[in-house]
Specification:
alpha+beta; 4 helices; elongated
Length: 349
């Protein structure tokens, strides 16, 4: 499962590209760009829980107490020496250091505390003798993203949430200790209705709801077949953008039901996490890559989107708006961010 460094809705708002029918195309482009970023940097920027095996570090004479990582490390849950033996030795957290401590995580090496009695040992074989279980990647930065609106068992893939503005298609979210990837969204009633009819007039942007607390600023709500972006809510009155996301302007009657895309269709237990049960009102957070990585992903996605629309020709746009594609500034940004994060792989097995 890929980790995506921007979401579909984030791209559409930033790039001014509308139309729900394009969601799948945009998602595929973001997947490709995110994979390209990981390949270019030898990094991934969200945590992945995994166990990695290393040979006993005897290749560094006098330095067998230092283990270098082939991927940046965020945290360690279990560190074993003599991992291939029938009775491995657990090295306690008090007996090793994650380095460089002055600016990690991420960390690039594990050092045994030489004042302790612990050591990296080969045991029956030098091969695969050191086991490191933990979270790997650049960072585990998150943002609050609302809450569950239902109890979940450990297999449901339609997840109802309280606020669809907080989560984008393509996000990796965390509920308790389980990570989930958001593939798409479906409409769910907010239980609010229109308090008064509205005409098919794009200048009418003030909409009164039966209960404004049931509608969230930043959501794209659907009334009949028209989508509206909710810019703000004051009491029961919302300021909206009409005919949003490629929908058709229409008139609506008093009492029309207001829907929002609050059912997330997810892949459960991603990035090495375990599927679990979760209680209604449980907090949701979404993983967020570093700002420069997000900007790089956005720039590459915009360029790829425009190039695809142009049939991967040299010109993008049409008619008087057509222009030659020039990727010099993107190339400079790509080079700079790549240099910021490029990680040399070492000796994991």
């Amino acid at each position: 499962m890929p980790n995506l460094y921007i979401g579909v809705e984030q791209f559409k708002r930033r790039a001014g590209k509308w139309g729900a029918a394009e969601n799948d195309t945009i998602l595929e482009i973001i997947k490709g760009v995110s994979q390209f970023i990981e390949d270019e940097t030898n990094h991934y920027f969200f945590p992945i829980t995994a166990t990695r095996l290393y040979p006993w570090p005897a290749w560094a004479p006098g330095r067998s107490w230092v283990l270098w990582m082939e991927q940046p490390l965020i945290s360690v849950s279990t560190l074993l020496s003599k991992a291939q033996d029938s009775t491995p030795t657990t090295i306690g957290a008090a007996d090793f250091f994650l380095e460089p401590q002055e600016f990690g995580p991420p960390y690039t090496r594990i050092e045994i505390d030489r004042s302790s009695n612990s050591a990296f040992e080969a045991g029956d074989t030098q091969q695969r003798s050191i086991s490191v279980a933990g979270d790997w990647g650049h960072s585990a930065t998150t943002e609050a993203a609302g809450a569950l609106a239902e109890d979940l068992d450990n297999s449901e893939t339609g997840v109802d949430v309280t606020d669809s503005s907080k989560v984008s298609i393509g996000d990796t979210i965390l509920v308790d200790s389980e990570r989930m990837f958001v593939e798409s969204k479906d409409l769910l009633t907010t239980t609010a209705t229109l308090n008064g009819g509205i005409a098919a007039d794009k200048s009418i942007v003030s909409v009164t709801f039966s209960n404004g607390a049931l509608v969230k600023a930043g959501e794209t709500v659907t009334v009949d077949s028209e989508r509206m972006y909710v810019e703000s809510i004051g009491g029961n009155v919302g300021t909206v953008v009409r005919a949003y996301d490629g929908s058709v302007l229409a008139a609506h009657n008093n009492g029309a039901i207001v829907y929002a895309p609050r059912t997330l269709n997810v892949t459960r237990a991603v990035n090495g996490s375990t599927a679990a049960t979760h209680s209604s009102a449980g907090a949701i957070v979404r993983y967020v890559a570093p700002a420069d990585v997000r900007l790089w992903c956005m720039a590459e996605t915009i360029a790829a989107y425009e190039q695809e629309k142009a049939g991967w020709g040299r010109a993008i746009g049409a008619g008087e708006g057509a222009r030659e594609f020039n990727g010099r500034s993107l190339s400079q940004w790509r080079k700079q961010v790549k240099e910021n994060y490029y990680f040399m792989r070492y000796t994991a097995i």
